[in-house]
Amino acid sequence: MGQVKDRMESEMKLRGFSPHTSRCYLGCAKDFVRYMRRPPAELGTEEIRNYLLYLLNERQVSSSYFNQALAALRFLYQHVLERGWEIEKIHFQKKLRRLPVVLSTQEVQSIFTAVRNLKHRLGLMTSYAAGLRLSEVISLQPHDIDSSRMLIRVREGKGRKDRYCPLAQSLLLSLRDYWKIHRPGLWLFPGRIDQVHISPRSLQHVFQKARIKAGIHKPASFHSLRHSFATHLLEAGTGIHHIRLFLGHRSIQTT
User: Around Cβ 72, how many Cβ atoms within 10 Å?
Assistant: First the structure.
């Protein structure tokens, strides 16, 4: 799907899609073509339905992945192949509304204690102390830490929105100790090569390894640090509207 891929990339760039969304949409489109073994221009509604049923029945994907695949195919057929009427009648699935996993303050501290590597530990601590997403933590640069105003600048968070998050005094002191030892360059948390930030999988692996080492059996993930940040603020009496701003949510319903 060489030409179709190029056109799809161009259309997403014109619409200002984030690099993450563009990669996801292209990946879903490529998977669809590999499964069908035919160019997308030769395929129609029946083939799209069969592919989506294959995702549900054989691969047993989540509703989130299903909706992402459908959104990618909608974009492909509506804006690239200009045959949107063939896919408009296929509906998105309702997402399950599960309660987030929240860690206690003691559990959070035990996870931090279980991480020996200073850079990795600071990556986890920064997520919890400021309520940052994993993608936001790894994208931080040293100048995003504004110690004079006690703020952390998040550049192009979800929805490509910038925002400021509070910088806790305890986190600032830990970051200063980290700075003295590692002297990071372009990225606050670099990978093995200084010009590239640490990979999201690395921090996810660090979190899970620390969770197990700390003896925590909750099905927590790295994102649970963000949920715990918000919940602990709420329990401490912080207003929900302030928490919404810290998290970067557009709607109070999301918070």
Answer: 21
